[in-house]
Structure formats: structure tokens, C-alpha cells
Amino acid sequence: MAMAMNSVLVLMLGLAMAATSSAAVYKVGDTSGWTILGNVNYTDWAVKKTFHVGDTIEFKYPQGIHNVVEVKKADYDSCTNSSPIATHTSGDDKIAIKAAGHRFFICGVPGHCAAGQKVNIRVLKPQRSSSSDAPSPAPAASKRGAAAAPSPAVSSSPPESSSPTTDSSSSSTTTAPAPNASAAAGGGGAKAAFAAVALALSPPRRCYSRINFDI
């Protein structure tokens, strides 16, 4: 039991390390950072990235000149920071992504959001693991097996070729000559033979003609 528990703990630790190593850190604006200089197109920057749960968004900027304000979509569209979700001012703000969906960030300094210092981060939903879908084909396979089950019963039925054998035997029986008829024919031939032999062996009969002598 202890060995099994240790194996499970090692496996969970390995999965946690793999998930941590696969997480990415995205620096907003890349080398330009979070700024209004250089006409950085943050919308184009975000579209070219693929964000997942577990990744980190990093905003780098000179502290005191800019800030990072997370807002709702309506405030993002209107560049309003009157009801912020969160405000960051460290100059090196690292924000972890913990859920899928859209997250909207603007600079709260007046005029900066209108100048284009705003970004919409779209986080993809976690993909469902293939192992959860694996058991689903099993019922389909069992149904196919059940449907195919009657086929051996058909093959085990006697072949149709046996029926002509029965017919031929019955026809040969009806067409064969009756034993009595052949015996009768044989008996008649024997009688005729015996009669011929007896006639041949019998002494010749003398024929006397009656002669009238007239005196």
C-alpha cells in the first residue's frame, strides 16, 4: 500500500512539473513593452498569440508613467476605468491566467487608452483529454458483435444440396422393377425350357394310317 501511495505521489508531482514547464509567459508588446510610443498595435500582437490557462501575461513599463487596469468589455470599449476589476502599478506586473475567456486591460492614465494602450487577451478553453472519450466506442462495438452473432446459426444449417439426394433416391426406388414381376418372368422362362426339353426327350409317336383294303 505504501509503495502504491508513493507511486501516485510521484506521478502527481511529475504531472505538476510538466504543467508548470509547459506554461508560457507573454510579455505584452514584446520588446516595445507597455507604452504609447512607437504606435504599438496591441490588438495585432494579441491575435498572433495563443493563450492558455496557466500562462502568464507580463506588463513592463516605467513605474509612475503607466499602469495596468483590468476592466469589463464595456469599459474596455469606452476606455473607462471608473469601475476596475484590478489595478497594477509595479512597472513589472505579472498576471496569471486562471480561467478561459476574455480579459481586458487598459492603461488608466488619461488619454493613453484612447491612444491605443489597451489589449484584449483571449484565453482558449482547456481541451478535453482523449482518455475520457475512449470508453464511448465500447457500446458500439458490442452492438456490432450482437448484430453479427446470428450469422454462425445460418452457416450451421444443413446445406440445400442434401434435398436433391433424397429426391433422387425416392425416384430410383419408384422406377425400379418390382421383385415379384422379375421372379414371375424368370419362372415362366424356366417352365418353357423344361417343356422344350421334355418334348425333345419323349419317344416319337407312330402314326398309323387307316388303310381300307377292299377285297
From TrEMBL:
Keywords from the UniProt entry: Signal
GO cellular component, one term: plasma membrane
A Pfam family per the record: Cu_bind_like
Location of region: Disordered: 126-187
Span of the signal peptide: 1-18
Keyword Signal: yes
Domain Phytocyanin span(s) in chain numbering: 24-125
Protein name: Phytocyanin domain-containing protein
Species of origin: Oryza sativa subsp. indica (Rice)
Keyword Signal appears in the UniProt entry: yes
